[in-house]
Every structure is written in C-alpha cells, then in structure tokens.
Amino acid sequence: MDLDALRHGNFSQLGEAVTDWEQMTKKLAALEKDARNNLKAKADKAHWAGVNAQASREFIDKTAQEFADAHTQAVSIMKILKDTRGELIDYRTQLNETLERGPYKYCTVIDTGHGTFTVTGNPRPDWGSEPSGTTSAVSQKDVEDLRNEVQRILNKATESDTTAAKALTLLVDQAKYGFSGAHYENRDEAAKAIADADRMAKILAKNPHDVTNTELASLNSTLAKYKNDPLFAEEFATQVAPKKTLAFWAGIADPYQGTYDPDRAKQAKQLQKNLGTTIGLATLSDSDKMQSWEERMIRLGPDQLGIDDASNPTGFAVMSNLMRFGDYDDQFLNDYGDKLLAYDKKMNGQGINAWVNNFNEGDLNYWGYKNDRGRDPVTGFLEALGHNPDASTQFFAQPDGTGDAVNKNSEVNDHLKYLTKERVWVSDASTLGGKHGYVAGRDSLGHALEAATTGYAYDATADQVKAGGEHRTSATAAVMEQVAYLYGSQDGPNMLHDQPELADSLGKMAGAYIDDIDYNLSGVGEYEMDSGAFPAKYAGRASFTQEGAINFLSVLGQDENSHRAVTAAQHLYTLSALDAYPPTSDTNIEHAHDALTAGAQARGILDNSRVQQAEATYKENADEANKSLGRSADWIKLGVGTTVGIGIGSIPLPGSTAAAVVIAPIAADTAGEALKTFIGHEIDKGVDDKEADPAEESQLTSSQFYKKGENQLGLAYHTYVKDNPRAAQVGNDQNWADAIKAAYLGIGSHENDYRGRTPH
User: Fold this and answer.
1) Is residue 675 very low, low, confident or very high in pLDDT (cuts 50, 70, 90)?
2) What is the pLDDT of residues 8-56, one digit of tens each?
3) Can you tell me the mean pLDDT for 453-482?
4) Which of 85, 379, 662, 716 has the highest Cβ tally under 10 A?
C-alpha cells in the first residue's frame, strides 16, 4: 500500500459498501427464512405424486439452499469488508498520529510510489547559532526509528488490504453460478485460513522423506481442521502443483523407504484421508485456477511421475487412492474416469496385469490394505464414485435413454459393459493376511453402482437416509434398468457367480427399487400393471418388464447375500403397503390384496431360486444345502435396527463389506402396525420355538424353508384382517389365502422352474 493512500485515505465509499451489504444481509436473511419455513417446509409436507413428487420438490430444495448460500456469502463479504475498513482506519490514525508526534514531526516523509517512501530530518531554524554545528532538528536514529514505524504500519495495512482482497476474490470465484456457502466471521479468520493453507503447502513442497513426523502431524491436524473450508482447500491445492501433490503422497505412502515407523504409518493413513478430502473440496470451486488444476491433474494420469518411490507410479495410480475420500466435483470425476478407463482398456488383458504384478510394489492405500493394496487405480476411482452419487449416475448414464426397459446391449452404457463383462479383474490382496482371491475392485464397482442407483453414498447411515428421504430420479432409474438387464440376462447367473463381491450390492440395489419391481410383476404379462397399488414414488420410475423383473430376481435369489438384502426390502415394502392401505374402503382393501400377492410372487421367485441354487451347489451334500437355506432364512433378523422415515426405510445389513444399510422404499409415510411387526420383533411367532433350536438355525430343509416363507406372508395377511371384519370377509370371499399361496409357491412349488434363470 502506498503511503499517501493510507495517510489521506477516504474510506467513506468502503463504509457505504459495508452499509449496503448490511442491508443486503438483512433482506437475504428474511428471504432465507421464508424459503426455509414456507417454500421448503410446505414442499416437504406436500403429498405430491408423479413429476411433482421428485422434480418440483428437488427444484424447491435447491432453490431454498441457494437462498441460504446467498445469505451466508453476503454475511461473509459484509464482515470481511467491515473488519477491513475498521483496520485500515485504525492504521491511518496510527500513521498520522505517529507523523505528528515529536520528534517525528520534524521529519519529512515523502511517498515515492509502489509502496516506497523516504524519510529525512528537517533543518533547524536556529542552526546558524548552534555551537555544535548540528543542522537537523532530529537525530539519524530518530529518522531510522520513524522509517521503521511507518514501514510497520504500512506493512500491516497492506496485509489487511491484500488478504481481504484475496479472500473476497476466492469467495466470489468459488461459484460462477449461484453462491458459495463459505462462512467467515471477520477478515482475520479468512486471512488465517489462507495463511494456514500456504503454510501447509510449504510442507508439500519439501522432499517427502525430509518431512518429519511432527510436520506430518501438523499437516494432518490442519487439514482436518479446515476440512469444510472451501477457501482453505482451494488455496492449498493451487499452491501445490498437481504433480507435486501426487509425488508427495507417493513418497509418504511408500512403505519401503527406510525403517518401518508405526507412528509414521499412522500419520500416513490419516493423511490419505485428509489430503483426499481437501482436494475434493477444492475441486468444487469454479475458479479458473482450479479448473486449470483439474485439467493438469487429469493430463498427468497416464504418465509415470519420474520418482523413486512406490515403483514410480502413474498419476492415475496415486490420485485414485486419494479420491477414495471426499466430495468431488462431478464433472472432474467423469472426465477423470473417462480418461482412466480409456487408458485401462489399452493396458488391461489376460497376460501380466499392468497394475497388479510382481514388479509393482507401490502400495498406495492404507485403508483395508490387506485386501486392497491400492495398485489398481480403477478400484480407487470406483470408491470415489461410491461416495459421489451424482457423479456415479452420470458416469453410468444410459445412452439415449427412452424411459423404456433396456432390452439390448446397445442400450447399456459402455463403462458399465466394460466393467461388468469385459475387464479382467485381478485380486490386489496382500499375501500376508489378505483374503485369497478377493477382488476389491469388484466390490468397489458394487459401491459405485449403489450410489448411481440410490442417489446415496454406498455407506450412508440410517440417520442420513431418514433425513434425506427419496433420492431416486429418472436418471438413477435408468442405471438400475441397465443393471437389471445385465444381471437378469442369460449370462446373469455366471456373472453373479464369477463376481461374488457384487452380490450384496446387487441385493441392495434391487431392494431400493422393490416398489418398481412389484409394479412390473403386478400385471398380466406386460398389461394392466397396477399403478394404484404401486404408485410411482418419483418421476420416470424404473421399467423392467415382467419377464425382466422375474429374471433379475431369479438371479439374485441364487446368492445368499443378494437374496437376504432384497427379501428384507420386499417384506418391509409389503408390510408398509398394508399400512398405506388400511381396510377403510373397498379400494384400499383391493390395493392391499394386490400388494400381498405381488410381494408373495417376488418372494416366491427369490426363495425358489435360493432352494434350487443350494441343491445345485451342494448336490448330494444335503446337510450343507440345508445349512445354506438356514442362513438364507436368517434375513428376518435384519428387522432389528430398521428405521423408517417419510417414504423410505433403512435396513441394517450386517456382514456387508461396509457398515451400510439397505435403502428400501415404503408405501406409507410412517410405520404403522404392520411395519411394527417387522421392526418390533413380532414376526413369525409360529416358528419362534424352532428358531431357538441351534440345529434349526444351522440347517433348514427346502420344505421348512418354504413353510417359513409362507408363515411370514400369512402373518402379514393376518395382521391386516385380524381387527377388521370387513377386510376379513372380503379376504374369505375372494379366497385371498389361496391367491397368496399360489403367488408364493406358484402352481406347485416349482412353477418357477420355467420362469427366470436356471441355477448356476
């Protein structure tokens, strides 16, 4: 800052700007409150159907959030401006008071431009009569002291001005459209975030082997502290070039550098998460600097870094392990993934794998490393998609989707075809303690597809799902249609058998669309599907066709993990339909009947497939087949811990590769008596005594297995009619019992032999 600019500074315009922003924040606060309490609150409570249930509500939610972000950004701008104005006025006062204070008032201070100035002592008026001959009113020390004091004040004023300008520029550049949600109480807070980012960037500028454990700990704690600060994230990322970021992590992660240090390994593990999270947040910025950073990072992907660490990895190998954590820009992930898979197709084959081989000792993943050393970059990228649902939905988007069921390969996304049918997957498990043959990449593919189809991160918690509600859209449904087509195809049983790591994810995906599956099962062939009993919960619901739904369920029933996930979701949905259609009208009673029979049909397909697969797998070993069925019957225990929100339920799935839930649609807004039979441990009292028998828990013959399923459907029917004579009378007159049994067992217990896919 120039001397005269501060000394004669007129900050009235800045004061007017502060006043304007103060008024603006008050207006935006009112708009935010109105958007939250009126617009959004009413939309949340509205019982909309069809397009409005999804598109309008989603638009209103985003609009309300924009008002909130606009208010937050305005408050931050106002506080930074106000704080900076106050500081500059204070520095102006300090400067002028200093210049008027003796002996400094006898000096001349001249602004020489570009932040420079000169200080000279003035001649004494009586210098001619002074015996000593001294001609100046001040000493040289006074001149130097004044110069130092003026410089100190100018430095402080310059820091205040430039850091405010940088913070405001970063804040405004964060979003080209809309507003940034970054919040700062004052200029000092914003300036400190930027300064801390610069300080941490200097650590990454060092040779990673020269970085001490203390510095790593400081880096971790600072990144964790600012994990939600977008200005910190952008400043940090842009101060560290993409290549240096990758080389630094490779050097820290390499376990073969020097003597193994447990504390350093602990710090390295946390750094992988903290660094990935910070970079992800930085990519959300729309600034030109970050756009350039992202482009450079993607260009580095196929190239080796030219370092001695981690077997001289490619950019893909390193970045994919960092992006396992964090919320990333959707376009960045899609651009990165397009280039990664294009490169992978050239490198992947039946011979020596380009990523996983004895020559590559670049262990770059510290999370679950025994089964996933991080050498295959496709795995880390898919984990990133699993935590970024919108990006995943885009990455697996149906080409030229028409909204109809997928019925040919040309309607399947190229990325999805490659990853499920063409790519050669190799286990990246450690030989010391890893699970032999386990392929982490396929598990991560399942995670990515869960996110793409449900709209939630694959490891979303029950609380997050309950608060978030319905996230399915026509785009997520289009991905689900492709998945059902692939795994319900003639090759579906082979695919599921060869990709066991995907089984739990496939079950969760089917569970998330069980209402649409039941709707497709409800018609006669492809006609007269029952939209009354199975109304669309979102716009552009998934279409499978009846044959497609049957084929898909018949494949999922073959695996214990996929069977239990989708069966639990089916049961929850059927019970919720009984709550949604209380026996208060003939229409409701009819809908309840349709829900029971469609649910029984889906359950019958799943259970029949499970029995046939157990017989095919274990052949003459009846004891092992019975144990397999016993494990499959234990899905009912998933009811413990089930939570219900508005239109959605969360069923815990213990034993899954991630602590996650089955996200299941429910027909009712809240849990009624029927749902409480599942959540409240009252299910299947007819076999409670048998379940207490250890032998019964470990093995179950096919006849007992079917009987157990029939009892569970019977209890649901009983729950509906037990206290309502009208419903009971209708059920008796229309012979609901036989209709439900026929739907479950088929015409004879093996009608499904000629419906669906044969066991593997």
Assistant:
1) confident
2) 888 878 778 778 777 877 777 777 777 666 665 556 555 555 555 555 6
3) 94
4) 662
Tell whether omega for the bond before 493 is within 30 degrees of 0, i.e. cis. no
Q: Distance (Å, rounded) from C-alpha 429 to C-alpha 373?
A: 6
Residues 363, 372 contacting (CB under 8 angstroms): no
Distance between alpha carbon 178 and the CA centroid of its chain, in Å?
Answer: 21
Query: Residue 654 burial (CB < 10 Å; 0-12/13-18/19+)?
Result: exposed
Q: Give the model's pLDDT for residue 38.
A: 66
With a cut of 90, say whether residue 511 has pLDDT above it: yes
Amino acid at 34: D
Q: Which residues of 80-99 are buried (b: 16+ CB within 10 A; e: fewer)?
A: bbbbbbbbbeebbebbeebb
Closest CA to 88 of 187, 169, 197, 175: 187
Per the model's pLDDT, the better-predicted residue between 354 and 563 turns out to be 563
C-alpha–C-alpha distance, residues 712 and 685, integer Å: 9
Taken as a whole, the chain contains a residue count of 760
Q: What's the one-letter identity of residue 502?
A: L
Which amino acid is residue 312, in one-letter code? N
Residue that the structure tokens 């006062």 belong to: 93
Pairing of β 116-121 and β 107-113: antiparallel
Q: Which residue has the tokens 């390193």?
A: 318
Q: At what angle do helices 288-300 and 242-253 cross, to 10 degrees?
A: 50
Distance, CA of 664 to chain centre = 18
Nearest to 332 by CA among 376, 287, 374, 284: 284
Q: Which long-range contacts (CB under 8 A, 24 or more apart) does 678-683 make?
A: 678/571, 678/572, 678/575, 678/639, 678/642, 679/639, 679/642, 679/644, 681/639, 681/640, 683/636, 683/639, 683/712, 683/715
Q: Give the Cα-Cα-Cα angle 299, 388, 430 (nearest 5 degrees).
A: 75
Of 236-250, 511-525, 699-713, give the lowest mean pLDDT range.
699-713
What is the mean predicted confidence (pLDDT) over 143-172?
A: 85
Degrees to nearest 5, angle at CA 428 with 425 and 433 = 140
Within 13 Å and on the Cβ side, how many CA atoms surround 199? 14
Dihedral angle of Cα 526, 530, 535, 540, to the nearest 10 degrees:
10
Distance CA(417)–CA(422), nearest Å, equals: 7
Contact 545, 526 (CB under 8 A): yes
Mean pLDDT of all residues in 487-492: 95
Per-residue pLDDT, averaged over 722-745, amounts to: 91
Q: Name the range with the highest mean pLDDT among 277-291, 395-409, 621-635, 647-661.
A: 277-291
| Per-residue pLDDT at 258 exceeds 70 | no
Instruction: Report the distance separating Cα 69 and Cα 74, nearest Å.
Output: 8
User: In whole angstroms, what is the distance from residue 596 CA to residue 392 CA?
Assistant: 34
The Cα–Cα gap between 359 and 356 comes to: 8
Q: Within a 13 Å sphere around the CA of 294, how many CA atoms are in the beta-carbon half?
A: 26
pLDDT tens by residue, 537-562: 998 999 999 999 999 999 999 999 99
Alpha-carbon distance 97 to 91, whole Å? 10
